Structure formats: structure tokens, C-alpha cells
Fold this sequence. Notes:
Structural class: alpha+beta
Amino acid sequence: MHSTFAKLLEGLHPKFEALMQVPPCRYGNLPKAMPKQGVYPFTENGNHLYVGRFNKIRARYGRHCNPGATHRMAAFAFKLARETTGRMTASYKPGEHSRKGLMLNPEFRAAFDAAKARIRQMDFRFVEEADQNAQALLEIYCTLALNAKYNDFDTH
């Protein structure tokens, strides 16, 4: 194994442990002091649902759940809305099944808005990781360690 990669791997579990020691917070009570870059999970009723990474944590958090966040900003909410409405098949062709088309559907739009409200009620933790390579690996590590149901690493 390449030594650079091995060194990055060595740091994953300690960062994961540090993440899990952070007291959870929620919408409206994010701490004033937060790292600029790192990894975060969203947790609901003890179930870890989604892990993401950030370069500007406050902005990224807001894109997940602020009422004005669009389908391009709130990927997790979009996944929740797909599940709620049963519209699980992605389409990259213009039309009613595309992201834009789904957002024009009143039922889907209501589910998307409800998903953002749901995310605002979820526990949120974060851990700093400035190195972009370590950050990417930590996101994958945390996703697998927490069995985060809404993460996938499919290519589009």
C-alpha cells in the first residue's frame, strides 16, 4: 500500500471517534465556534441517515434544510422526498421525472419541503478535516461505520 494512502487511513478511526464525541446540535442552535472544513452526519432517533462533507459548514448545513434551499442544494432532502413519494427512479432527460420536473409536481414539492423541515429536527454533529483527500475518505468511512442509509457513491 502506498505510504501516503496508509497514513490517511490511520487517521480515519480517531477522527470518527472524535466525531461521535461531539454533542449533537440542531437547527437554530449551531455553536458559534465551528470548523471551516470537515465531515458531518445527520441522525434521527438514533439512526444515522446521511453523512456529508463540507468546506463551509454553516452554508452547507443551510443548503440541506433552509426553507429556501433548492433541489440542487438539498440533495439529502431530495432523496427523502423521492422515498416519500415513491419516485425513486432518476431521470436525466428533461420531463416530469427529471429533478426539475419533480419539483414542478405539487405532491413532490410538498414532500421536498417536508423533508427539509424533517432535517431541521435531526441531530447534527461535525468534525474538522481540512485535507480534502482525508475528508473524502472520512466521509466514506463514517458512512460505512454508521450504516448511513441515504448515502451512496454511485456515479451518474
